[in-house]
Amino acid sequence: MNPISPEHAILHHLIGFLGSGLLLSAFAMLAMRRMTSLVRIFALQGIILTISTLAVSILSNETHLLFSALFTLAFKVVLLPAILFRLLGRLKIQGEVEVLVNVPSTMVLGLGVVVFSFTLSAPVSEMASTVSGGLIGIGLSSLLLSFLMMITRKKALTQVLGFLGMENALFFSAINATYGMPMVVELGVAFDVLVGTFVFGIFFFQIRETFESLDLKHMDNTSME
Amino acid sequence: MAVSMTSPPSLFAIEGAQLLFAVLFAPVLYGWIAVCRAALSNRSPAGILQPYRDLRRLFGKEILVPDQTSFLFPLVPIAVFGGLAASSLFIPFLWPDPVLSPVSDAIVLVGIFSLVRIMMAFGAMDTGTPFGDLGARREMMVAFLAEPATLMVLFTSSLWSRSTELPSILSSLLSSSDPFRPSLVFAFLAYTLILLGENARLPIDNPATHLELTMIHEAMILEYSGPFLALMEWGAQLRLLLYLLIGIDFFLPWGMTTQISVMGFAAGGLVLLAKLFLAGSGLALIETLFAKLRIFRVPEFMAMAYLLAVMGFLIHFVLEVQS
Q: What is the pTM of this model?
């Protein structure tokens, strides 16, 4: 690793700090029982991503990361939460999140996931040449935690939030492992996620019209019809 | 450590001051929290000294012991109060290195708190009433869920100093220049949850209610009256203060005096008081914002605390060791 000047050391610590914030928010998503708080946490993840992208861009002098930070702010803090809140209102979802595995067990599982991904990424972190290579483990564990959320939740909307959380974690890992993907790829992914959310939104209405519920277990039987 | 120059008598005087401060300030802190809660919910407060008035009233009553209780029943209040008052000698808060603190490291401290809790459970079960029994069982449930989390928080904090002794944890925190410590943030969050659970504060237990189905702490001390009840209540107040003091040692130790001088102690004491009053109002805010959890949600709450503590522990190795 290249030597770090004192003013950069603070930024460096800030990124570590934000990384643990991201991990914490992934856990908070697992623990939350209300839909609206889930969307709020998602917006918070967006803010964390924006600030850490800015910090990495200052640390590494990569100007394209500034644009990434801007896009993150626009998409993940403003646009997507607004769409999701609108969806919640239109679908009249207010109640509690339904779970397949109860919350304390999911938490313990999540802890296992964190240990697993920290162990897995330790050698990768040592190889990483970027300023914040140590954070790959945190990105990986947040990714797997969001994945865990997709697996253990029943309702379609919660699973979409899990998917968006996964994308956030992936973005965070990419920034810290390789200073982000090329601009074209990043833009593409951002638009994909946006369009995906629109499609999911339309999908929700279709699912509810067909099965009169957003519970995805009804979709298991569709092949028999 | 640095105290080898000073004479033992002054060090023991500091210990005495610590004991006096803890025992006398605990009711004031309780009163302050009640005042904050009253202000936050638009009620007129009873005054910051109300716990003292309650204690005086209780001490003025005669001692009543229920029939069919064993020798344990009158022993419990004394053991509870004594154990907690003694722990105030081991926790550094006026002086970073109390002369008696080598007697007990953080793990022994957790042990003393468990001993106190077990004594309370014994006292509650000794009377044979269903309520006491119920309260004792619930308290033990919360305790056994909180204890691993407490130990993990202690271990996370002691990773910095490679020692579980409170003075060395404190000195390693005071001497380092590094402001960002993700692992301690996790540990702090976990500790806040533990503090609420262990001291029968609101999301777990409402200290101001005697509703049969929900009470935990109050159910345990239901059969005590007069001076015994006063000792139990004072013990509970002391326990809250001690938890806050340990929390300040771990997460906010700055401002403690490092020289034996009147000015140093006055300044350090003022900073400590400010921190305690601030922590008390924070506690009151938490208690105003959150509703009481169902008893079956308590394991979830405590699992969260344990999880946060373990995460802090892991984060230390991932983020902080190599840098």
A: 0.84
Whole-angstrom Cα distance, residue A122 to residue B216?
44
Burial code of A96-123, b = ≥16 C-beta within 10 A, e = fewer? ebebeeebbebbebbbebbeebbeebee
**Among chain B residues, CA nearest to A135:** B319
With 0-12 CB in 10 A as exposed, 13-18 as middle and 19+ as buried, what is B249? buried
Give me the interface pTM, i.e. the ipTM. 0.74
Amino acid at A9: A
Which of B5, B83, B69 minimizes the C-alpha distance to B224? B69
User: What's the distance, CA A123 to chain centroid?
Assistant: 24
Inter-chain CB pairs, A–B, below 8 Å? 66
Tokens of B221: 């001390």
Do A20 and B304 count as a contact with CB atoms less than 8 A apart?
no
Which contiguous run of DSSP H or E holds residue B62?
none
Q: Please, which residues have CB within 8 angstroms of residue B263's CB and are 6 or more apart in sequence? A: none
Query: Residue B304: which of A14, A107, A114 has the nearest Cβ?
Result: A107
Cβ atoms A88, A43 nearer than 8 A: no
Q: What is the C-alpha separation between A43 and A80, in angstroms, rounded?
A: 8
Provide CB contacts within 8 A for B150, sequence distance 6+: B110, B191, B194, B198
Chain B residue numbers with beta carbons less than 8 Å from the beta carbon of A24 are: 186, 189, 308, 311
Do the Cβ atoms of B303 and A108 come within 8 Å?
yes
Would you give the end-to-end CA distance of chain A in angstroms?
A: 60
The answer to whether A164 touches A26, Cβ cutoff 8 Å, is no
State how far the Cα of A28 lies from the Cα of A24, in Å rounded to an integer: 6
Q: CA A57, CA B214: separation in Å to the nearest integer?
A: 53
| Dihedral pair phi/psi, residue A37, rounded to 5° | -70, -30
Strand partners, A99: A153
What is the per-residue pLDDT across A19-67, written as a single tens digit (0 to 9) for each?
888 988 998 888 887 888 888 999 999 999 999 888 888 887 778 888 8
Rounded Cα gap, residues B267 and B278, in angstroms: 17
Spans of chain B, pLDDT less than 50: 1-5, 323
Closest by CA to A138, choosing from A155, A124, A154, is A124
Specify whether the CB–CB gap between A142 and A169 falls below 8 A: yes
Q: Would you say B257 and B268 are in contact if contact means Cβ atoms under 8 Å apart?
A: yes
